[in-house]
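Open question from group meeting: does this chain pack into something compact, or does most of it stay loose? Before anyone orders reagents, we agreed to write out a predicted structure and look at it together. Recording both the input and the output here so the notebook holds the full record.
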Amino acid sequence: MQQVIKPALLGCLVSMAIVGCASNEANTSPAASSANQALTQSAQCLQWDGQPITVDVANSFEEGTAVKDFYSGQMSTVYQGKVTFTPSPESGGLLLLESVTKQDDAFSWDSASVYFVMTDRFHNGNPDNDNSYGRSKDGKNEVGTFHGGDIAGLSEKLDYIENLGINAIWITAPYEQIRGWVGGGMRGDFKHYGYHGYYVQDYTVMDQNMGTAEEFKQFVDDAHSRGIRVVMDIVMNHTGYATLSDMQEFGFGATQEYDVPIENYLGKKWTDWSPGKGETWHSFNDYIDYGNRNEWVKWWGPDWVRTDISGYPNPGPSDLEMSLAYLPDFKTESDKVVGLPPFYKNKADTKAVEIPGATVRDYLVTWLSDWVREYGIDGFRADTVKHVEPEAWQALKLASNQAFQEWKQNNPDKVLDDNEFWMTGEFWGQGLNNSRLFDSGFDSLIDFTYQTELAKKGMNCLTDMQDGYQRYSDVLGKRDGKVLSYVSSHDTRLAYGSISKDLDQQKQLGSAFLLMPTAVQVYYGDETAREKGPRSSDKHQATRSDMNWDQLDEQRLAVHKHWQKLLQFRKRHQAVGSGQHQQLSAAPYVFERRKGDDAVVIVYAGQHAK
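Structure tokens returned:
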């Protein structure tokens, strides 16, 4: 029989987890005392000799106000408009000045500090669920296998996250992923499971590797009790790939015909197959007959997805109709009424029920908003936003906001505030520019440009951030649509090892980043200088290494303490992340952030002269 190999499963081939010199010109009043002989200006950056710094704060704090450096705890009273402090040796030359009487601000998404956790790689709270659905290790570098992190592990680490100064946590999707694996990377050099949450199979049930519904409910409640909002990663663009495990268990797809049973090649449990001599993890495709139309329509079915398997409509050339990384593309734009996906008939544990008159979009919106209605999820981070029509995102936002209000009405003792449901999205390459998506349900979009344009500059010298700080503040202050900036990402690169090259640089990287006048996304381990994982033919997998709990020695704890100070300061003041930025002095570099009645003053004395 002629072998038909379609590229639909070569997710395989693109193993992406679909899852971003000091300026001396101050254009405001001089704020620093000219008596500051402690400062000199080098061609590279301000230099500071360790002596006290006197700063003019008359425009920010009234005469006689007791002012505190949040970093060191020192206090000084404003006299003749000035205060004098010596930056803590651990601060990297920073002073974080606030009124002594300042009380913590209420939460605002505009200035949120969001901790992005790849749940599977963070902390293992229940080893009993590590091998759910027959999932297994590869016995090598474990680049794309499940590592054991789960919802129970997140719950165990909530105190750590709270103490860090975080007020929102973004978790990878907890709903069920494909149960089996596909070949990973361009070379098929590793076994790739959906540990990252971007290969959905069933939105209506928890993935057993992540835990139980009861554990998830407890996690959300425990996070809320600490004032931490929960943001869930979601996908509406695509399904996960077909796998040997799911084909065998749910009765869809076809294998090649041989003179002997297919088990002679794949084994009794197909998912236990592994490459032989001359094969890679992609080679399982050689045993699959992608041309058997009658058997493949038993999977999602042609009314649900487009993919290049026989019996399905072909993907198109546009962003909205393409098959991203060969992943089957949901037909969210279709107005055709559909029933449940055919293979759900053989999936005993699904909670999906047929919705009369529903389209594909209607099902996805219902299934996703049900997580909000059931658990009180505060927000979504939407994946691959550019590949789904804006109308679908608008529908999701409206349904989720309604579900959020219903949850609040049903759980009045758990309500944190009167905020509406929040959505941020990944539109590849988005920066500070405006977007029509702000009119289609999104409160925020992920900022890809901070990492590429400002991160290294700010790390090398904080004074070089002035233009960037001013630009972000000016633009965002004039519009409702905000951004979520990051310095490390699972889809681009880790800052540590690529931007920062040592632990001191990782501290300085944090200084510039955490003082951004935006909401910020801290990728797990940014605060502890987490290192990249093993190399493979998919470079992004290395950004998803295990949280480095076992590396927290004195040097890394110093990095952690520095990031913690800045994050706690951000948490106290909305002004830091969403206030109006105004430079007060070039040497030392001094700026004010003001929002309403609250003002903070940040001073950068310079690099400690040696």
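Observations to bring back to the group:
Residues 1-38 have pLDDT under 50 and may be disordered.
The chain has 13 helices and 25 strands.
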